[in-house]
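User: Sequence in, structure out. Go.
Assistant: Echoing your sequence, followed by the structure tokens.
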Amino acid sequence: MDEYTADAFVNREEPVPVIAVSGSDSPSSDPKGKRERLKESLGGSKDKLKEKLQDAGSGSKDYGYSLQDRLFAKLLQQVIPEEEVEELDLAPDVRSSKYINRPGFSLPLMTNNFRRFNARIGVVFVFQNRLERLLTWRKPTHTLSLLAVCTFVCLDPYLLSVIPVAAALLFVMVPAYLARHPPPPVSSIHTTSYSMNGPPLAPPRTIKPAAEMSKDFFRNMRDLQNCMDDFSTIHDAVLRIVTPPTNFSNEPLSSTIFLFLFVATCLLFITSHLLPWRLVCLLVCWTAIALGHPSIQQLLLSNHQKHLAPHERTAQSWLDAWISHDIVLDAPPETREVEIFELQRRNGGQNGEWESWMFSPGPYDPLSPQRISGDRPKGTRFFEDVAPPRGWEWGDKKWVLDLASREWVEDRMVQGVEVEIEGERWVGDLAGDKEAYEMKPIGKGKSKDLDEGGGDSKMGEWRRRRWVRMVRRKVVSDIGSIGS
């Protein structure tokens, strides 16, 4: 209590008002979201959390913890479920402790920081209170003075550099000097002026943190509580207004907004130097401050339904009609062709039978990296197990055999193979070493065809053929949300 002063800057009687905006503010009851927020708040690692709690419980770090904080840390250390933290698996987050070299979550540390923060935040709330009184015309002379300053700055933007210096002079230096040279008591002198010459008569005024359990400390808690409610209310109201037309949930409307913004960007890029920006800033400034006057607010609320609502409905109907006629979004989803190679392997030498081996995304040709390194082909044994790429779905019902075997062989510059131009369209390996494969490049008109006199050549161990199928982009029902 020794830090409490009667004339401290944080002293005030008027609370910061709570902004009331219609709308629901119900927290999410999704258990998965709660589990994710739990792990994120705990630092993402059970071992690190345990270590921090042990530090708090043992008092190894000098945070000024009381015996009650240490006992609570020990209790929390036993209550936190180990398997719950281990099972949670979150996507990489830039706010994670892996990317930020800052202390992790610690309840005693957070309690200590909150007490320190709450004892010093009063200056911000005093400034907020005075700004609200200024913008809501509590004292019209003060608001008119603000309008005069804004007018000079808008008409002559170079005066903007004078504002910080003048503010430091008028709101910091002058009050500090007057605090050290106070006027005499009113009962002892009958004049309105006094001399400020001579030595200082009072100690300098300092801004001290509000003492715990003092009146200012609880006022700060009250205003902090109201500010948290204001932020949550404004946050939800902004998202409720801005998100639906901009997140392409209504794609024609979002496309129209995108078109208007694009046209406005192009026009401003060309004509921005021709606009009278000083007059524009002056009108915006006067309009914003005038809207805070109680009489104007009542006038707008009373005349909204009578004059503005019919025009809003007319504009909305015109916009809907324009969107329905001029915004066309009936393009089909993107489609592509995917391929799979059916691989067969010969058993028992040249006279052996071909055995189905697997379906692989690559042709596994003689000079492929997998073949050279001695690795087995990768894929699936059955046709039914072939899945479309991630984010895609099948566009037709079945696979189609690629009859143009020569084309994909030439496109891939596959060497050391024979190509069937009829029948089942197999592309088989030629028997021989790797040097022989390199000496027989496949070019246009140079491939050996089994149906063109190549049947007497010795076949290798592997053969393959290509199947194709169409896929289209999959419609995603839920892409998640962006964390605040």
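User: And one key feature?
Assistant: The first helix runs from residue 31 to 41.
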